[in-house]
Write a structure and sequence with these properties.
Chain lengths: ~525, ~400
């Protein structure tokens, strides 16, 4: 019965000094959704790069057997001609171009010197309909949301006559609702006979869509699990394969929780969009956080969480602010300045560590000290020995895995980068830490370590606000949970009362009310 | 991970331009029958290229902020020099003239920096505007003529005329003893400071790559003594060398040991992250360009002193020499990486090629072709070596 569409046999890929893939085997049946899971750096992306020809034939050992024949791809074009299309994690659309132009970029309809725009847009519209988009293919990509952009990516892949679709972290930039829609779309495609490989960190998604799950760890295939039974496979079972041990508790318990007085209060906070000042991105929001407390802010992407956090942090986002900000009971008149916020002992750990958080071309040391250089320098002259000592201290404290603090941050894995980002803000010695998606895109093991750090911070009397779009994380970590939707704060719950169901219910209700 | 081959590769990557410099020096030693290493030629190499070192140090800071360049420096050199020359011809005190020239440069730099930092006019355009405007104004100030400078002490102090050398206090006769002694002293101080730094780092348990840490300072010390020994056989230390050294040491310190230096790298590496770290990035841009103006003023002083006159055409193409030195010296065209030591090597390499070809009697036009090729090769190598990493 097994109709194998793709077999990757004994794939070994070596980079100078590192064996990225070691004898990896992967078999994908026609018409199934096959999930590829593993921690960051386990080799999933490398394997897909081998498959799609980014690493051409001859640079790896082993065979790719596709539809019964051994393939020798020299570049992406070769694999796409066979119907193997990969959709990368980062959206690769050009915002200024229309959807149609994007979909046929490099694959233009018509003749080389005379693009047939009518065919282009007609065909584009056809594929957009298949992915459930009602937009015209003539609108610019920048005018549609990220959820829809991801769908455009899929339409683009379909336009290339894909028969094996590879989705690399397709939902990493989507909210819960859009993610679910995307997964349902995948199941719909499966019914029509499409074969798909999905790479993801979100195990609930894996359990939901995948027929088979191949676990990769340290560059080798560990096991392939079946997910056919009436009960979806348990996440713990998958994690066991990924980390090589049972993870009974994904969220570390906090010990000796002592919640003190109110540290920061935000009252009637309203912020407008920087480009469209008539639009409110944060609408009359009031929150507070106490000493030693971890407050979760849950909301879907685009709910205004990041905007709220950044506007509190030295008005680094938005225009036309109104509302009160009190720290330790005193009202603060904050200027539009990040330095001012740091002076008031607020830290904002961004959700976008590569874009807004770290200087990738500099060392761990330089990144760690960046937000608080003054404390290790006198009259603007840096005491480099002190700086080194500080970086070492945090490397140890946060167990950042690196040969030396002189290592460039760009060379670290996502989890370690996130730790460097945390180190930087811990070194700024804040009382209030706003963590925006602190575990986005990092593996299970590193997540656990980050949770431990958050708990330590709270135990040390700091006030922590944790923004997240992963419900289990918010539920598992917070003492109190705020729920945000469509720029408004729509609910507040104690950790004991909060459940996945009543949070989602609150969001749905507010959506109906509006 | 650290296999032997990769450490050789790392060594080659780190010292490519040094090795290229050595290769070029050997090449010209052969083709010029050793003439290029004559004491007088070494002296000329320094004196003729003084402005390159000074401008390249400032240009590096601009480039660090994100591959941004300052096209106006050539015109500013001419303009500042012109003002000083006119002042001195009118009999105004030379130090006042020097001050005015520096202030002029700084003011122009600050003016351009304002547009770049706060209004966010792209640096290329803001300084292109300056390049036109100050070239024109130089002509206005000089009324289209050359203005000669006969203030002897100005020439002596800033490297022009026949006596622009540090006098030999020690009276060494044919060998300028002062020069040699200074060279040995500088090398000794440098060695002691390096050893102390290594000792401190060792005490703190900072990782050391042992042998390389000693070889590099040893070679540099030998080179310093060798260079001063050569210069001692000619007329001693050219005064311009003192200005060059002062500028390079200062800017090496600024880029490696101060917070503003750190911010230059950080802005070039990731401006948004730097801003969110509480750094006013506008000020960082402003600093880079205001500072560039100041150094252009100094380069203007050195230029008119060396020529003992100011002319409306002076300084043309200087910006390109400075930019090329930075890129040859390994500064990234996208910002965020680059060092003063690299700039020094880049400037020497350019100067050496110029001089070597002049001695060989190669046409000046072909010299430009060769310079262009060298620049392309250097940047190509930089780009390729970065690509390898992936």
């Amino acid at each position: 019965m097994a109709d194998i569409l793709l077999g990757m046999k004994s794939i070994t890929k070596t980079f100078p000094g590192v064996k990225a893939l070691d004898n990896v085997n992967l078999e994908v049946e026609r018409g199934e959704i096959h999930a590829l899971v593993g921690e960051n750096g386990a080799g999933k992306s490398t394997l897909m790069n081998v498959l799609s020809g980014i690493y051409p034939y001859g640079t790896y050992e082993g065979d790719i057997v596709y539809e019964g024949e051994v393939c020798k791809f020299n570049n992406i074009k070769d694999s796409e001609r066979k119907g193997i299309v990969i959709i990368h994690q980062e959206l690769a659309l050009i915002p200024e171009m229309t959807i149609g132009e994007n979909m046929y970029l490099g694959n233009e309809r018509g003749k080389k010197f005379a693009i047939d725009w009518n065919t282009t847009y007609a065909e584009a519209d056809k594929y957009l309909k298949m992915v459930g988009l009602t937009e015209s293919s003539k609108v610019q990509v920048k005018t549609i949301g990220t959820g829809k952009q991801q769908l455009v990516e899929i339409a683009k892949a379909l336009a290339k006559q894909a028969r094996l679709l590879i989705l690399d972290e397709p939902t990493s930039s989507l909210n819960e609702e859009d993610s679910r829609a995307l997964l349902d779309l995948m199941l719909e495609f499966k019914k029509q006979g499409m074969t798909m490989i999905i790479i993801t960190h979100k195990l609930n998604e894996v359990a939901y869509v995948a027929d088979k799950i191949t676990v990769i760890r340290d560059g080798t295939t560990i096991e392939t699990l079946e997910n056919h039974g009436p009960e979806p496979i348990s996440e713990e079972r998958i994690i066991k394969g990924m980390v090589g041990r049972e993870m009974t508790n994904r969220f570390p318990k906090r010990e000796g929780v002592k919640i003190g007085d109110v540290m920061m209060e935000v009252e009637n906070w309203t912020v407008h969009h920087p480009l469209y000042p008539e639009r409110k991105v944060v609408d009359n929001v009031s929150i507070n956080v106490r000493k030693g407390e971890v407050v979760g802010i849950y909301g879907l992407m685009g709910a205004g969480r990041t905007e709220l956090a950044m506007s509190i942090f030295g008005q680094s986002y938005g225009v036309n602010f109104s509302g009160k900000l009190k720290i330790d009971g005193k009202e603060i008149k904050m200027k539009k300045s990040e330095a001012d916020a740091i002076r008031h002992k607020i830290a904002y750990v961004t959700e976008d560590r590569k874009g807004n958080g770290l200087v990738l071309s500099q060392s761990i040391k330089v990144n760690t000290s960046l937000a608080n250089l003054n404390s290790i320098s006198s009259h603007t002259v840096i005491d480099k020995d002190k700086e080194y000592a500080v970086a070492e201290e945090y490397r140890e404290k946060l167990s950042i895995k690196t040969p030396s603090v002189e290592q460039l941050v760009g060379n670290l894995s996502g989890g370690n980068q996130q730790k460097v980002l945390l180190a930087k803000w811990m070194f700024a010695e804040p009382d209030i830490l706003i963590l925006d998606e602190p575990t986005r895109g990092i593996d299970v093991g590193a997540k656990y370590e980050i949770y431990c750090i958050i708990n330590d911070l709270a135990a040390a009397g700091k006030s922590v606000i944790m923004i997240s779009s992963e419900l289990p994380e918010v539920l598992g970590m917070s003492d109190r949970i705020y729920i945000m939707n469509a720029s408004k704060m729509i609910g507040e719950m104690k950790a004991e009362e909060a459940t996945q169901e009543n949070i989602m219910a609150a969001i749905l209700q507010s959506g109906r009310g509006a | 991970m650290n296999t032997n081959t990769s450490s050789v590769g790392a060594f080659l990557k780190k010292y490519t331009m040094v090795l290229a410099l050595v290769a070029v020096a050997i090449f010209f030693s052969i083709t010029t029958q050793g003439k290029i290493l004559y004491p007088q030629n070494l002296n000329n190499l320094i004196s003729q290229n003084g402005y390159v070192f000074v401008l390249a140090a400032g240009m590096l800071l601009c480039i660090l902020t994100g591959g941004n360049i300052d096209l106006a420096v050539g015109s500013v050199v001419c303009f500042a020099g012109a003002i000083g020359a006119v002042m001195m011809q009118a009999g105004i005190n030379m130090w006042l003239a020097v001050l005015v020239m520096l202030a002029t440069g700084l003011a122009i730099g600050a003016f351009q920096g304002y547009w770049i930092a706060w209004v966010r006019v792209p640096p290329f355009i803001a300084t292109l505007a300056g390049m036109y405007a100050f070239r024109g104004l130089s002509n206005v100030v000089l009324q289209g003529y050359a203005v000669s400078i006969d203030n002897k002490s100005f020439l002596n102090v800033f490297g022009g005329g026949a006596d622009c050398y540090v006098p030999d206090f020690l009276g060494g006769g044919t060998l300028n003893l002062t020069c040699l002694v200074v060279g040995i002293a500088v090398a000794a101080i440098y060695l002691v400071m390096t050893l102390r730094k290594i000792a401190v780092q060792k005490r703190m348990g900072i990782h050391q790559s042992s042998v390389a840490n000693f070889i590099q300072p040893a070679i540099i010390s030998v080179l310093i003594v060798w260079a001063t020994w050569k210069l001692a056989q000619y007329k001693g230390i050219p005064t311009v060398l003192i200005w060059i050294s002062l500028v390079l040491l200062t800017y090496n310190y600024i880029t490696t040991n101060t917070s503003i230096g750190r911010y230059l790298y950080a802005v070039g590496g990731n401006e948004k992250a730097t801003a969110l770290s509480g750094v006013n990035t506008n000020k960082v841009y402003f600093f880079a360009y205001a500072n560039m103006g100041l150094l252009a003023g100094l380069a203007g002083i050195l230029t008119v002193a060396r020529a003992a006159s100011a002319q409306p055409t002076y300084g043309q193409g200087y910006e390109m020499d400075a930019i090329a030195s930075c890129f040859i010296g390994g500064a990234s065209a996208y910002g965020g990486t680059g060092k003063i030591s690299g700039v020094i090597i880049g400037a020497i390499l350019m100067g050496l090629i110029n001089q070597g070809m002049s001695i060989m009697g190669i046409d000046a036009n072909y010299q430009r072709v060769v310079k262009g090729i060298v620049l392309l090769l250097a940047v190509m190598f930089d780009v390729l070596s970065k690509r390898e990493k992936r």
